């Protein structure tokens, strides 16, 4: 079995700062939400052994605020910045960990969440996949190369407003 934690970055700051989308940081609400998401993962005893993250400022800041153990194999991939679902799945198929955290952006991250699951969670915010939305899904596979559309089961889903 393989486990995927599929997280959209926390709320970003549109009010000031860099004009470049890639460099936009989290806003105060996003910083608080990212820390809460880290606590939520910890309370469920979910700790990834590999992280695959977009290189954007808001994804890297989200990851930092999760307060995960520093020894986790972490890769920042430019290809995950605003990636479509196909790129996200292809990247996942190259993963090496047993429990992989992927942090990215909508619409690709939300589309991936919908496409990998056999059955969607009943949560009213799932299809919107708002900032900080986090899905924990299990794949009954031996290797990530076997990950495909529709072959995962949702274990947990949350959004920051639930925490």
From TrEMBL:
CDD domains on file: HP_PGM_like
Question: InterPro entries, from UniProt?
Answer: His_Pase_superF_clade-1 (IPR013078), His_PPase_superfam (IPR029033)
Q: What is this protein called?
A: Histidine phosphatase family protein
**Family annotation (Pfam families):** His_Phos_1 (PF00300)
The superkingdom listed in its UniProt entry is Bacteria
């Amino acid at each position: 079995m393989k486990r995927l934690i599929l997280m959209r970055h926390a709320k970003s700051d549109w009010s000031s700062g860099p004009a470049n989308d890639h460099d936009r940081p989290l806003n105060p609400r996003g910083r608080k939400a990212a820390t809460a998401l880290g606590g939520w993962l910890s309370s469920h005893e979910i700790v990834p052994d590999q992280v695959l993250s977009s290189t954007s400022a808001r994804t890297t800041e989200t990851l930092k605020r999760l307060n995960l153990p520093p020894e986790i194999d972490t890769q920042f991939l430019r290809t995950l910045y605003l990636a479509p679902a196909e790129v996200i799945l292809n990247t996942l198929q190259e993963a090496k960990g047993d429990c992989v955290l992927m942090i990215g952006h909508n619409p690709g991250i939300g589309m991936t969440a919908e496409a990998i699951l056999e059955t969607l969670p009943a949560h009213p915010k799932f299809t919107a996949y708002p900032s900080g939305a986090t899905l924990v899904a299990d794949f009954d596979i031996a290797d990530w190369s076997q990950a495909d559309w529709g072959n995962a089961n949702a274990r947990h889903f949350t959004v920051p407003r639930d925490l």
